[in-house]
């Protein structure tokens, strides 16, 4: 076993550039020179070059001949493809997870969802909790391969979600919508109805896709349907 070394400068530069791109501080399509970034971060040219290579493999930047680069532009077709795959995978896992989640875990997730309505917190502030919520909701029925695949899709969507939903943060109603949308998922999961849970996740993803597209300039407000309320379970009558 070799001693663990502290992170290299290139790793630190990669982390900071990734953060700046994901939250939109480095806007999609922005062009910059490697020397410019090195000056902003107070580092030498070499770790910036290495960091950009890593970020290019993640699809976040485009390097060009010479010493320039560009933040990868947003591609709404990519966003739609990501959500198409999520709608294929997540509802099926949800149908199995809803009967495995404990009441205590659902209570915890309901408390987490309540925080999404805090008007003081924007998408960047709640993103990690939002990611935790969706992973925990599916975790009891998700295999290691499911988690790997979902993590890849969620990472690919992260920049779109942070920028798109972040654009909606000034509207107080958006915070309440987030809270209500996630509390609705919990309400449906408590019914332990696999078909209802799958449909609730499907509806949640479809609505979020439309909201993200609208926020990123790919749709109009009227394109987004209101959130669907779960139907109450029918009471059985005895004869």
Describe the structure.
The chain has 239 residues and is mainly alpha-helical. It has helices at 9-22, 34-41, 45-57, 76-97, 103-114, 123-138, 144-166, 172-189, 194-215, and strands at 31-33, 61-64, 68-71. A 3-stranded antiparallel beta sheet has the order 1-3-2. The longest helix is centred in the middle third of the chain and has 23 residues, at 144-166. The radius of gyration is 21 Å and the shape is elongated.
Give me a quick take on this structure.
The protein contains nine helices and three strands; from the N terminus they run αβααββαααααα. The protein is mainly alpha-helical and 239 residues long.
* Chain oligomer state: single chain
Which sequence of strands runs across the widest sheet?
Answer: 1-3-2
The sequence of SSEs as H and E is HEHHEEHHHHHH
What overall geometry do the principal axes of the alpha carbons give? elongated
Per DSSP E runs of 2 or more residues, the count of β-strands stands at 3
What's the rounded overall pLDDT mean?
Answer: 87
Radius of gyration: 21 Å
Major sheet description? 3 strands, antiparallel
Please estimate the helix content. 55-70%
- Number of helix segments? 9
Overall structural class, as computed from helix and strand content, comes to mainly alpha
Strand content: under 5%
First-to-last CA distance = 71 Å
Which spans of ≥5 residues are poorly predicted at pLDDT below 50?
Answer: 233-239
């Amino acid at each position: 076993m070799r001693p663990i070394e502290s992170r290299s400068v290139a790793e630190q530069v990669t982390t900071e550039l990734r953060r700046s791109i994901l939250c939109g501080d480095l806007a999609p399509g922005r062009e910059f020179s490697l020397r410019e970034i090195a000056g902003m971060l107070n580092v030498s040219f070499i770790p910036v070059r290495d960091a950009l290579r890593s970020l290019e493999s993640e699809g976040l930047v485009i390097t060009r001949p010479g010493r320039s680069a560009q933040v990868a532009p947003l591609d709404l077709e990519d966003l739609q493809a990501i959500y198409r795959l999520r709608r294929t995978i997540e509802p099926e896992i949800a149908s199995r997870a809803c009967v495995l989640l404990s009441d205590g875990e659902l209570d915890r997730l309901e408390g987490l969802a309540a925080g999404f309505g805090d008007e003081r917190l924007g998408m960047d502030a709640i993103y990690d909790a939002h990611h935790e919520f969706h992973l925990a909701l599916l975790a009891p029925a998700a295999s290691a391969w499911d988690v790997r695949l979902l993590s890849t899709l969620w990472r690919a969507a992260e920049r779109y979600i942070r920028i798109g939903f972040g654009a909606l943060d000034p509207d107080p109603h958006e915070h309440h919508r987030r809270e209500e949308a996630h509390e609705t998922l919990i309400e449906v999961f408590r019914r332990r109805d696999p078909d209802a849970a799958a449909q609730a996740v499907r509806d949640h993803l479809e609505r979020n896709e439309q909201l993200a597209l609208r926020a990123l300039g790919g749709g109009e407000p009227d394109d987004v349907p209101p959130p669907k309320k779960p139907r109450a379970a029918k009471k059985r009558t005895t004869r």
